[in-house]
Design brief:
The protein is mainly α. The chain has twelve helices and five strands.
Length: 308
């Protein structure tokens, strides 16, 4: 059997045969090294920088109700954006195409510009996600919640290193997210809100129908560059969500979910858990509802839909 034939006969998941054991081995090594650092060379460092620094006295305590709703809408839109993004990337022949009503003077060889139904939904969700994000950022600053996700002291960095070692050693730091995030959380949340999310929006806009290729900026800001950045940004979002959800569920699930969805610091109430499960059902249902025939009547409200 030739090498080419052997490669074709291998299943798609064949690389996992090597990747999974390698990841497990690296994980075990990382845990052992972190435990050694925590017990020896970094013991005094971790005692000095346990994981968080004090916020200003005026910093708000707890989470307002709007934050829970924003959290749900952000999750909902991100799930559908990932879903439609993957469909755009891997669908060879879309089942339906959408043409905008009141077509602006952007033409392709004299004909109205058409987009796959997946592109239409992705770009429509983009605007909803951006609007939700703008409202979220405004409310962060109006209510003072910004101080929880934007570092206000250089101490955030040694504290973040300390937290990383504590997480890696599997002896996790004591947390009270109702009052203050640890430094690593603060850096991660702040980066996602103010760096990763805007980067996704900017690169997505460059590839959207709203971008006029006649703009002078098109010569400098190439679509290929935006496309090269946009997909890895999605991967970062997915990895962030996986790590975030894992830590939420393994560092006191009931209390954390009450913070995020129940608006309280209760450790007994199941309200947060129930709201979280409901949100998961809604997101899963929306994931599977992304079908051309189901989307068609909605897409027709803003344009014409055809099979070619």
């Amino acid at each position: 059997m030739s090498n080419a034939t052997a490669k074709k006969s291998r299943p798609v998941w064949f690389p996992l045969v090597w990747a999974v054991p390698a990841v497990i081995v690296l994980g075990v090594v990382a845990v052992l090294v972190a435990q050694w650092l925590r017990a020896g060379p970094m013991a005094d460092f971790i005692e000095t920088y346990p994981g968080e620094y004090h916020l200003p006295e005026w910093a708000p305590v707890g989470f307002p109700a709007w934050l829970a709703w924003q959290h749900f809408f952000n999750l909902f839109f991100m799930v559908l954006l990932v879903r439609t993004g993957l469909l755009i990337r891997y669908t060879k022949r879309p089942a339906l195409f959408w043409t905008r009503k009141n077509q602006p003077p952007l033409r392709t060889k004299g004909t109205p510009r058409k987009h796959s139904i997946n592109h239409w939904l992705h770009f429509s969700l983009d605007w909803l996600w951006i609007i939700n994000g703008v409202v979220f950022v405004i409310l962060l600053f109006v209510t003072g919640q910004w101080v929880r996700v934007i570092p206000t002291s250089w101490e955030v960095f040694p504290h973040a290193i300390s937290v990383a070692v504590q997480y890696a050693s599997l002896d996790w730091p004591t947390e009270n997210g109702w009052v203050n995030y640890n430094a690593l959380q603060q850096i991660a949340y702040g980066s996602v809100i103010f760096i990763i999310a805007p980067l996704a929006a900017i690169t997505g806009f460059r590839m959207s129908p709203s971008w006029n290729p006649k703009w002078k900026l098109s010569e400098v800001y190439k679509q290929e560059w935006a496309r090269t950045i946009h997909f890895p940004v999605m991967i970062v979002f997915v990895l962030f969500v996986i790590v975030h959800v894992t830590l939420v569920l393994t560092t006191g699930a009931i209390r954390n979910l009450n913070h995020m969805y129940g608006g309280s610091d209760d450790t007994q109430s199941l309200l947060g858990l129930i709201m979280f499960l409901v949100s998961l059902v809604v997101c899963v249902a929306a994931w599977f509802a992304v079908r051309p025939m189901l989307l068609r009547p909605i897409a027709q409200l803003s344009g014409s839909v055809s099979k070619n």
